[in-house]
Amino acid sequence: MLLCHSAAVKYTGTNIKLPKREEIGITIVTHWWKPKFQTLASREAALRSLDFMFGWFANPIVHGDYPKVMRSLVGYYTEDAPASSNAVNHSWTTDRLVTASTTNKNGTLIGAATDLDWLFVYPKGIRETLLYIKEKYNNPYIYITENGYAYGYNASVPIQEARKDSARIRYHHDHLWYLLKAIKDGVKVKGYYAWSFWDDFEWDAGYTMFLLH
């Protein structure tokens, strides 16, 4: 993705004259992680998760290199392992040395569950993510290219009831409220795009989820 982005920027720079003040950006997907415990180990684990998802792409673009923790933990890719060493299945999820599947603490969920097993409603997270990007990546202009709430298809729910869509209304209300707080904190947010009816049919849960507003 970084190589494609670089090629597009170079092509635009030599072949297309952009209007004044126009900029080229990149879309990076990320989650927000919270430390399960207020310990140094938990806080470092949360930051590693961010580096291994968001920083993997943002760091080279803004700072010119991969995050230091990735350089440190993924060094085996350039080393010859002894023939007698035990085989280990390395992957993005194991390299970061994080147990990131925990969604509750002492029986309390981090936020309301949705019908997607990886998506929990935690509006504060959008502000925390934006402040993190502001501080670590030189306060760039930010366009949130997708954010949304999904629920499972249920043919037994009457259309008039489904149209009320109170859970999704609350979802966007709360996220936009924290987004406004981030803007007041100096984050340069320029756009917010919600999931539309046609979003996400091509991956994950396909047509089994409703994203309609």
Automatic annotation (TrEMBL):
<dbReference type="InterPro" id="IPR001360">
    <property type="entry name" value="Glyco_hydro_1"/>
</dbReference>
<comment type="similarity">
    <text>Belongs to the glycosyl hydrolase 1 family.</text>
</comment>
<dbReference type="InterPro" id="IPR017853">
    <property type="entry name" value="GH"/>
</dbReference>
<protein>
    <submittedName>
        <fullName>Uncharacterized protein</fullName>
    </submittedName>
</protein>
<dbReference type="Pfam" id="PF00232">
    <property type="entry name" value="Glyco_hydro_1"/>
</dbReference>
<dbReference type="GO" id="GO:0005975">
    <property type="term" value="P:carbohydrate metabolic process"/>
</dbReference>
<dbReference type="GO" id="GO:0008422">
    <property type="term" value="F:beta-glucosidase activity"/>
</dbReference>
